[in-house]
Specification:
single chain, 119 residues, alpha+beta, 2 domains, 3 helices
Length: 119
């Protein structure tokens, strides 16, 4: 009976080790990044606790080059919501694409504010 328990424990350990190695092979040892993280750059939100409906959103390239700044009024940007994060990613990718194409941005408009408003 003891041999059977020891064998079952050993088999469980071997199987779990095999599954763990298979998962590591699938991701090549690299942890997956969330869907809302862009490969083209990043964004920073500046806000104040006393004025939650007023924020400044700055978009940067991966080289830490500021390419676009937008002031958002009347919208609370809740970064805990996936929809907000995905909207910011979409705006970032549009801004980086326009910046790479033209070298500078001229009056893009209120991208973040438009995406943040409820429809």
């Amino acid at each position: 009976m003891k041999n059977l328990k020891a064998f079952a424990l050993l088999a469980a350990l071997v199987i779990s080790a095999h599954i763990t190695m298979a998962q590591d092979d699938a991701t090549n040892g690299q942890p997956r990044s969330p869907k809302w993280i862009s490969e083209k750059g990043y964004w920073v939100i500046e806000s104040n606790i006393k004025t939650p409906k007023s924020s400044i959103v700055r978009f940067y390239t991966n080289d830490q080059h500021l390419i676009y700044t937008e002031t958002v009024e009347g919208v609370v940007l809740n970064v805990k919501k996936k929809k907000t994060l995905m909207n910011l990613k979409n705006v970032l990718e549009k801004v980086v694409f326009a910046w790479e194409k033209n070298g500078e941005l001229k009056d893009i408009g209120e991208l973040v504010a438009v995406l943040g408003k409820k429809k």
